Amino acid sequence: GEEKLKHTRNPLFVRINTLRGGKIEDLDGLDCEETPIEHVYRVSCVSSINDLKVYRDGKIVIQNIASCLPALHTILNPEEHSRVIDTCSAPGNKTSHLSMIMNNTGKIHAFEMDPNRVETLRTQLNKLGVTNTEVVHDDFIASAPEEFEAVRYVLCDPSCSGSGIHLNYKPDQDRIDHLKAFQIKIVEHALKFRPEKLIYSVCSEHREECEEVVEEVLRNPEYDLEDISGFWKSDESLGFPFSHKVIRCRSNSESGSIGFFIALFESVERQRVADG
Ligand code: SAM
């Protein structure tokens, strides 16, 4: 929302929401530029956007460009009619993007633990015309895989330090270590659902929340990283053995990107099948 925007150093991006029939013409009158990401535009008029009918009608979504990467056809690419879990969903930017990519088919189980944020999530999904999603007001880590039909894709975008977004961010090592432990736990729990693919993303620049989480998760021999580096140019490598496969960006006021990190895990079994 607007409140958040005031506290970021970043320009505004909008995503066209085809679930509400949003189209490029809906941006007429906004001073906007294309981006390399389908349906995503950079706009310069920040103050008035909340007043626009197309915004209120859910035809456009305010969403940072980095936040539009995980669900993409080139990255997680959930197939239509499949089953998906979003482990940490509110306010629902990525959930609704997943839904749009699936054309509202199949089913997304969207977990959110926080009672206030779960309401925001519901409101946002309704506003955006999402109909293939069941909101689960629960701690994802307490969910049992055997209670769900086979899940093929997981999006895991857990709470993080937000070091890639917040203007006056002050690192706190205890908090970062605590977040890292939580992030590992939630990804490892998600892998118990045996998805074909799991996308992990954080808007952090700390190696603890990024590569060190991946490093730990890779101890599971059933999953490996898929190389997604070609879809967005990383601007930094910390020299981990898998650094060439992940996306890692510092926040950059010129490109308007927030700082973020994305890694795509794929089941080794599935990779073997795909490779014949
Ligand atoms: N993916 C969201 C989006 O793109 O709009 C942003 C998610 S935000 C980074 C993380 C969310 O996870 C918060 O709303 C938080 O309340 C929720 N959360 C944290 N721990 C959780 C857990 N164990 N189970 C479910 N939700 C959790």
TrEMBL record:
<keyword id="KW-0489">Methyltransferase</keyword>
<keyword id="KW-0694">RNA-binding</keyword>
<dbReference type="GO" id="GO:0005730">
    <property type="term" value="C:nucleolus"/>
</dbReference>
<protein>
    <submittedName>
        <fullName>NOP2-LIKE NUCLEOLAR PROTEIN</fullName>
    </submittedName>
</protein>
<comment type="similarity">
    <text>Belongs to the class I-like SAM-binding methyltransferase superfamily. RsmB/NOP family.</text>
</comment>
<dbReference type="GO" id="GO:0008173">
    <property type="term" value="F:RNA methyltransferase activity"/>
</dbReference>
<feature type="binding site">
    <location>
        <position position="112"/>
    </location>
    <ligand>
        <name>S-adenosyl-L-methionine</name>
    </ligand>
</feature>
<feature type="binding site">
    <location>
        <begin position="88"/>
        <end position="94"/>
    </location>
    <ligand>
        <name>S-adenosyl-L-methionine</name>
    </ligand>
</feature>
<feature type="domain" description="SAM-dependent MTase RsmB/NOP-type">
    <location>
        <begin position="1"/>
        <end position="268"/>
    </location>
</feature>
<dbReference type="GO" id="GO:0070475">
    <property type="term" value="P:rRNA base methylation"/>
</dbReference>
<feature type="binding site">
    <location>
        <position position="157"/>
    </location>
    <ligand>
        <name>S-adenosyl-L-methionine</name>
    </ligand>
</feature>
<dbReference type="GO" id="GO:0003723">
    <property type="term" value="F:RNA binding"/>
</dbReference>
<feature type="active site" description="Nucleophile">
    <location>
        <position position="203"/>
    </location>
</feature>
<keyword id="KW-0808">Transferase</keyword>
<feature type="binding site">
    <location>
        <position position="139"/>
    </location>
    <ligand>
        <name>S-adenosyl-L-methionine</name>
    </ligand>
</feature>
<keyword id="KW-0949">S-adenosyl-L-methionine</keyword>
